[in-house]
Amino acid sequence: MFRFLFLIMLLTTINYNTLGQEEQKKEPNKNKDCLEEQPRGLFVKCHSYHRHRAAILVGYTLVPTIREADNDEQGLTFSATFGFDYEYWIRPRFGIALLNDIELNSYTILTNQGNLLERYFNLVSTPAVVYEFYPNWSLFVGGGIEFDEVENLPVIRLGTEFEVPIRNEWDVAFSMYYDYKKEYSSITLGIVFGKRFGYIE
Hints:
This protein is mainly beta. The chain has one helix spanning about 1-25; strands at about 50-70, 75-90, 95-105, 105-110, 115-120, 125-135, 135-145, 155-165, 170-180, 185-200.
């Protein structure tokens, strides 16, 4: 049994290496700024081949809220979040982005000053800098504004995103980011559906 499993693993490894060499021959790395050594199963083509990426986010934002304003009982609210992002890659591993998302919920929070503040379907728009520190895995940081009919708040955002390529430059990504605001903070977890375009040599 052990010999049989060992034989299967050996044949699979040989076949996988052969396919990898064929893909490298078909798609040579033309840009010197591309990552030279990329782990198996990740992007074969360098991101420098595409200047633009548009993406849609679906997820939830965790917000510390007041469940009952009378006794200031605190808890966590999972607010459904929908977002649209646009990225422009200046270099293969460095880009800028505009991150926009809206929370499809209303709630009351206890501010850092101890006051109650209501939020109604707030919209967050954040310009950011994106850096791909590992193939398909990037960090982003930026500052923007949370728009709300009660009060607009400044936002500092720090997050990370890991992409899983599909085909035809489409990808699915897992995103997590932390928003620090003047009155409170929140964490968002989401799934992102992205599309790259703008092929360059």
